[in-house]
Amino acid sequence: MTTHAFESPGQAFRAGAQNTIPLIVGAIPFGIVFGTLGPVNGLSFEATLAMSLIVFAGSAQFISLGLLAAGASPWLIVLTTFVVNLRHLLYAVTLIPMVRTLPQRWRAPMAFWLTDETFAVVAGRLGGEHTGQFHWYYLGSALSMYLNWQLCTLLGLTLGEWVPDIENWGLDVAMAVTFIGIVAPQVVNRPRLAAVLAAGVCSVWWRDWPHQLGLFAAALTGILCGLGAEVALQDRKSELAEGGC
Amino acid sequence: MEWAMLLGMMAVTFGIRYLPFALADRLRLNPWVERALSYAPMAVLSAIIAPAVLVPKGELWLDWRNPYLVAAVVAIIVAALTRNLLATIAAGMGLFALWRFWL
């Protein structure tokens, strides 16, 4: 991932889209499967497509289908969507320093297109030099994800059963290795290692919690472990410094 | 009913994503919160990676035959050595394909 400053909005936009390509590949089977499953679970053709267009939240969309099939009420589905998407609150708060200088007409579309994938891509640029083109980089990533999601939903809706079990092609591994490629180089000290290990272990441990709350709780635990380790190491250093005097 | 549900889903999803952005000028984050949030990206991504790799088919699969796990281990090694995103993805996906082909 390039970290130098961008010369133009166009260059930033293209770099954002390019760095998202592996995640787009990883999202393809999910988009197609969502399209095929919508009508099977009682959504109309139009509503399946509209959900991808106006909600644009992969895991919440899948969970809503499961709940629809189980005969859940629309209220419960909206409430579940809220809980499943709580992790986006964490993403948005993390991005506050980057959007603070932007006008609201930028912030609203950026928020609408905020996903796990785009957060992962732009998080690689957090903490570095803040270029003036951050929003264009973000938009390049977000729009390419959005366009791909719509096309895949439509493909799944129209091809239906024609796509031979694409969920078994293993394209989902693209997402995992891309996220590893983003995270691993950032683990340069012990607090960060603590954050990563705690979040990973807890997310596996708590995977059966409903509505992905386990993921949210594991991320929070990781954050607290990182911060705790940072403070503990600092205290030890200052104690050593005092002892040396 | 279907459309009311869709609008509701859109409202809560956009609301969660937009609220912090909308208030960004007025929200002054406590320095402690800001320090904590510097761990957010790696913590969230790790919480997504670990179950995807260790529980790919619904059950914990700690075995060298798990292609997701092997791909992840290789990706971690390549990422640590090269710090190159594309090399990491290529190595991970390549090994995943080989593993599935062989086993």
Any key phrases for this structure?
heterodimer, A: mainly alpha, 2 domains, 11 helices, B: 103 residues, mainly alpha, 5 helices, 75% helix, extended
Ordered list of secondary-structure elements with their pairings:
The complex is a heterodimer of chains A (245) and B (103).
Chain A lengths: L8 H32 L4 H11 L2 H12 L4 H11 L2 H13 L4 H9 L3 H8 L10 H26 L13 H11 L6 H16 L7 H32 L1
Helix pairs in contact in A: 1-2, 1-3, 1-7, 1-8, 1-9, 2-8, 3-4, 7-8, 10-11
Chain B lengths: L1 H21 L8 H7 L2 H15 L12 H16 L2 H18 L1
Helix pairs in contact in B: 4-5
Tally of separate helices of chain B: 5
Rg measurement of chain B, Å:
20 Å
| DSSP strand tally of chain A | 0
Structural class designation of chain B: mainly alpha
Largest interface: A-B, 89 and 69 residues
How far apart lie the N and C ends of chain B? Answer: 48 Å
| Whole-number mean pLDDT of chain A | 89
How much strand of chain A?
A: under 5%
Q: What is the beta-strand fraction of chain B?
A: under 5%
**Tally of domains of chain A:** 2
Topology of chain B as a string of helices (H) and strands (E): HHHHH
| SSE class of chain A | mainly alpha
Task: Provide a descriptive summary of the structure in words.
- The complex is a heterodimer of chains A (245) and B (103).
- Chain A has 245 residues and is mainly alpha-helical.
- Chain A has two domains: 10-168, no CATH class; 187-245.
- Chain A has eleven helices and no strands.
- Chain A has helices at 9-40, 45-55, 58-69, 74-84, 87-99, 104-112, 116-123, 134-159, 173-183, 190-205, 213-244.
- Chain A is globular, with a radius of gyration of 20 Å.
- Chain B is mainly alpha-helical and 103 residues long.
- Chain B folds into two domains: 1-38, no CATH class; 43-103, no CATH class.
- Helices cover 75% and strands 0% of the residues of chain B.
- Chain B is built from five helices and no strands.
- Chain B starts with a helix and ends with a helix.
- The model of chain B has no long low-confidence stretch (mean pLDDT 92).
- The chains are: A mainly alpha (245), B mainly alpha (103).
- At the A-B interface, helix 2, helix 4, helix 5, helix 6 and helix 7 of A face helix 1, helix 2, helix 3, helix 4 and helix 5 of B.
